[in-house]
TrEMBL record, chain A:
Record-annotated Thiolase N-terminal domain positions: 5-221
Organism: Haloterrigena alkaliphila
Residues covered by the Thiolase C-terminal domain: 242-386
Keyword Transmembrane in record: no
SUPFAM superfamilies for the chain: Thiolase-like
Single biological process term from Gene Ontology: isoprenoid biosynthetic process
This protein's name: 3-ketoacyl-CoA thiolase
InterPro entries found in the cross-reference section: Thiolase (IPR002155), Thiolase-like (IPR016039), Thiolase_C_2 (IPR055140), Thiolase_N (IPR020616)
From TrEMBL, chain B:
Top-level taxon in the UniProt lineage: Archaea
Pfam families membership: OB_ChsH2_C
Protein name: OB-fold domain-containing protein
Segments forming domain ChsH2 C-terminal OB-fold: 52-111
Length: 389, 126
């Protein structure tokens, strides 16, 4: 199969930046990625940009060309919207453009700005990732949707809030050295259990924060990399996309996420690997239960078996399979449209030794995975990244 | 939220309100709800109308403390997913003490108004 080389990555600090415009945040991330790659704006063939709610939050549609010019090009650009999976799928489109031979140099990434909407506005905005008729009009918020899945999970497989709390504690710990993270704050299991409830059985510390930020990567075709003699230590070697019904009520099981399974199987086949080859993963943990559902959907654990992984230490730094060494969405933050790109940037830098948590990655780890989910996993993207020998 | 009538959905609410709820059944036996022209599970376009059972069973629920604007005057409230024969509905739970809402609990489905915007919403009652 043909690879798409990751030549550079860039991101803003994730956090609360209500006064920073989206175009400026994406400019910072995109230009940093170009600088990391050692490339100029004039070399860009195409821009793929993930964003969920900018039409509302920034009163700005047609953001593709807007952010392209922000990184110094009028190359063709498009916005990809798929809720929280927007930039994972923007990168998938970019990978396909490079692999098909249609483009040699692409900038792919995403941005979200939500803190300027306030908590009520952002809650309302995020709810738009659920089915308006059959979920939002029945009182389903985004946390409520994951809470419905969490309770169904407990009912199907057992477990409780304390098991989930260990996921939050782990991801906060991982973020402590990541200066780009929204939350650099050590927490304990009791902090999670004592936090105010948002939607039972989920509380404030089971949820990721509302963040602003941008992330971008530069992808290169193998021929262009060779021609220019560019250093490309890590490549995307597998890409997958899975889908499901929008509303939870139409799913066969409320305790599984088959879109993740489909996306993973496609990506594994594409890369010619299986889950046991993977040494580190960044998964979509918008809520603690989401990390559990993701690890099972990816085939890293059997159904019902990932809930205790954080508690047992298996997914912590130093464990057998470190999960979300960046801090995950939970602590690194979740600027919706930037998340998928930030995950891929995290895996790339963890693999090439430039991430602040790279010391938690064993020397023999050469394959990593990024999993990005939209809505209650009506969309999922999975990418496999490998160190090129 | 909007004045526009949503094709099929408002008619579905009208029927539920009149106590004559229905669902669509495809040739393969999948249950689904309007508005739809095709079964989301198999693509079948032969959707027959079938009678919605009047009682259902809660399969999962949550007490929502941080509401959407449409429900801000009712928070905290309980939203649940309940099975009615071959289909599931999502609705607000009313008329049951909070501590008595549990998985497996039997409910009926009615249409009521939310307190904030006076929009019709699918509601579960004992
Ligand atoms: Zn069908």
């Amino acid at each position: 199969m043909s690879k798409a080389f990751i030549a550079g990555t860039g991101m803003t600090a994730f956090g609360t930046h209500p006064r920073r415009s989206g175009r400026d945040m994406f400019a910072e991330a995109g230009l940093a990625a170009l600088e990391d790659a050692g490339l100029e704006s004039e070399e860009i063939d195409e821009v793929f940009y993930g964003n969920f709610i900018g039409t509302v939050s920034e009163n700005q549609g047609h953001q593709g060309p807007l952010v392209a010019e922000a990184v110094g090009t009028t190359a063709p650009a498009r916005r990809v919207e798929s809720a929280c999976a927007s930039s994972g799928l923007a990168i998938r489109d970019a990978v396909r453009a490079v692999r098909s031979g249609e483009a040699d140099v692409v900038v792919a990434g995403g941005m979200e700005r939500m803190s300027n909407m306030g908590t009520a506005g952002a809650t309302d905005g995020l709810a738009r990732a659920a089915d308006d008729l059959f979920e939002v009009q029945s009182g389903v918020t985004f946390p409520a949707a994951y809470a419905l899945m969490a309770r169904a999970y407990f009912d199907t497989f057992g477990g409780d809030r304390e098991d989930l709390a260990h996921v939050a504690v782990k991801n906060h710990d991982h973020a402590l050295v990541n200066d780009h993270a929204h939350l650099q704050e050590e927490i304990a299991v009791d902090d999670v259990l004592d936090a105010p409830e948002i939607a039972t059985p989920l509380g404030l510390y089971d949820a990721c924060p509302i963040s602003d930020g941008a992330a971008a990567i530069v992808l290169l075709s193998p021929s262009y990399a060779a021609e220019r003699g560019l250093d490309t230590g890590v490549a995307i070697t597998g890409s997958g996309h899975g889908g499901d019904t929008m509303a939870l009520q139409d799913r066969r099981s409320l305790a599984k996420t088959p879109a993740t399974r489909e996306a993973a199987n496609e990506a594994y086949t594409d890369a010619g690997i299986d889950p046991t080859d993977i040494g580190l993963v960044e998964v979509h943990d918008c809520f603690t239960i989401a990390e559990v559902l993701a690890l099972e959907g990816l085939g890293m654990y059997g159904y019902g078996e990932a809930l205790g992984a954080a508690r047992r230490g298996e997914t912590r730094r130093g464990g057998e399979l470190p999960v979300n060494l960046s801090g995950g969405l939970k602590a690194k933050g979740h600027p919706v449209g930037a998340t998928g790109a930030a995950q891929i940037a995290a895996v790339q830098t963890l693999l090439n030794g430039t991430h602040p948590r790279s010391d938690a990655v064993d020397d023999d780890v050469t394959v990593g995975l990024a999993h990005n989910a939209g809505g209650t996993v009506a969309s999922a993207s999975v990418h496999v990244l490998e160190v090129m020998a | 939220m909007t004045d526009a009538r949503e094709d099929g959905y408002d008619a579905f609410l009208d029927a539920l309100e009149a106590g004559e709820g229905y669902y669509y059944e495809c040739s393969s036996g999948h249950g689904t709800l309007p508005p739809r022209r095709a079964c989301p599970h198999c693509g079948d376009r032969e959707l027959a109308t079938a009678t919605l059972p009047s009682t259902g069973e809660i399969v999962t629920f949550t007490l929502v403390t941080v509401p959407t604007p449409q429900f801000k005057d009712e928070a905290p409230y309980i939203t649940a997913i309940a099975t009615f024969g071959p289909i599931r509905l999502t609705g607000i739970v009313r008329g049951i003490d909070r501590e008595n809402v549990e998985i497996g609990r039997e409910v009926t489905v009615v249409i009521e108004r939310d307190e904030t915007t006076d929009e019709r919403t699918i509601t579960f009652r004992p």
